[in-house]
Amino acid sequence: MTMQNIQTVVERHAGQQALETGTTEDMHPAVFRIFLTFFALKMAGLFLVFWGDRAATGMLVVSTLYGVMYFGLPLLAQLTQPKGQPWEAFLKKEVHTFTGAVSGQSALIQICTVPLMVASGALVMCMTLSFFV
């Protein structure tokens, strides 16, 4: 057996085992969309506050363009993937991470907690700035 044949057998066995145990290594596309929504909310709040300042608006445009590229490439790559599992099934299944298997719901919380806090903090700062400036 060649090394490539061994690797193919191992990959098939790992895939079969994942199907049998109800685990997955893929994130549901909605997790990425939730992450993207938090970024969009943060940028929208910053645009509303700094719209009158040309220099700040220019920097926000650059940041937004970077965000479009950063999030756009994975979204385009996602279009080439076959339709995945339903949202409810993802939340119930286990997801393999570097530290072990966790539930889909736990993975969602781990992935989206920091972006939620960053977006919330940015929106609170934007509201504070809009009231005092």
List the SSEs and their pairings.
Layout: H1 3-21, E1 23-24, H2 29-50, H3 54-79, H4 87-92, E2 94-97, E3 100-103, H5 104-132
Briefly, what is this?
It is built from five helices and three strands.
Walkthrough of the structure:
The chain has 133 residues and is mainly alpha-helical. The protein has one domain (27-132). It contains 5 helices and 3 strands, in the order αβαααββα. The protein has helices at residues 3-21, 29-50, 54-79, 87-92, 104-132; strands at 23-24, 94-97, 100-103. The chain has a 3-stranded mixed sheet. The longest helix is centred in the C-terminal third of the chain and has 29 residues, at 104-132. The N and C termini lie far apart (72 Å). 10% of the residues are buried. The model is unreliable at 16-21 (pLDDT under 50).
Instruction: Give the DSSP E fraction (strand runs of 2 or more residues).
Output: 5-15%
Molecular shape: elongated
Structural domain count: 1
Please outline the major beta sheet: 3 strands, mixed
> What's the end-to-end separation, in Å?
72 Å
By secondary-structure content and strand pairing, the structural class works out as mainly alpha
Radius of gyration: 20 Å
Per DSSP, the total helix count is 5
Low-pLDDT stretches are 16-21
Please write the string of helix (H) and strand (E) elements.
Answer: HEHHHEEH
- Tell me how many strands there are: 3
| Strand line-up in the sheet with most strands | 1-2-3
**Overall mean confidence score, pLDDT:** 83
Roughly what percent helix?
Answer: over 70%
